[in-house]
What we know:
Elements: H1 26-35, E1 47-51, H2 58-68, E2 75-80, H3 83-89, E3 97-101, E4 114-118, H4 126-137, E5 145-151, E6 157-164, E7 167-175, H5 203-217, H6 226-237, H7 247-250, E8 254-258, H8 259-262
Parallel strand pairs: 1-2, 1-4, 2-3, 4-5
Antiparallel strand pairs: 5-6, 6-7, 7-8
Helix pairs in contact: 1-2, 5-6
Amino acid sequence: xxxxxxxxxxxxxxxxxxxxxxxxxxxxxxxxxxxxxxxxxxxxxxxxxxxxxxxxxxxxxxxxxxxxxxxxxxxxxxxxxxxxxxxxxxxxxxxxxxxxxxxxxxxxxxxxxxxxxxxxxxxxxxxxxxxxxxxxxxxxxxxxxxxxxxxxxxxxxxxxxxxxxxxxxxxxxxxxxxxxxxxxxxxxxxxxxxxxxxxxxxxxxxxxxxxxxxxxxxxxxxxxxxxxxxxxxxxxxxxxxxxxxxxxxxxxxxxxxxxxxxxxxxxxxx
Length: 270
């Protein structure tokens, strides 16, 4: 049974540039499968939405395959505001994978347990990005999650927020360690809700400065590879900042902190 509804009168949102590439979102998908697979287990067959899949549906197809490895009856719907992109995705249809015209209104048959929205809100201003969060989280299934953020063109640097129905929960930083330089280089991939807050006086700025300092203190571990240096730098932050993950995720080039820790001054909730 199709999970997408009939085309709405007007999709909510703006058309993105549509840039995408195979495996661009692999780090985000790995984190979803590795830390949020509970969203897919138990209960009726889950529905997942990939919002704004772009000019090619390749990353939606990849998401579908990765989630099917966790739950064989998961359904994925890729949504796009541009009808031509939806038409171009049609050859990739298969049982459990659908594509439809739509935006923030999420024209799907039932509330999704997960919405992935990468590189969608980057063109919005901060207020509009928060409005996008509010619109999407209001349409999640109870206990569901919005994963929203940005990555570079190859997916080697990414930062994303996990947003629950009652507000943002965490921020995750991820990098390809072979090409990594220093933590503050990830600032250009902050979600739109934070990217303009990387200035003195804001928590995210202080965090990145301290992470850089921890990275510098861990320079001696570079002889054992950047992975060991990343792990040591992350460990050096513990006690100074609350971290939500540990060495098993750090070794993958990830670091997750509570949203409230980096939230803009005066805005603990989204």
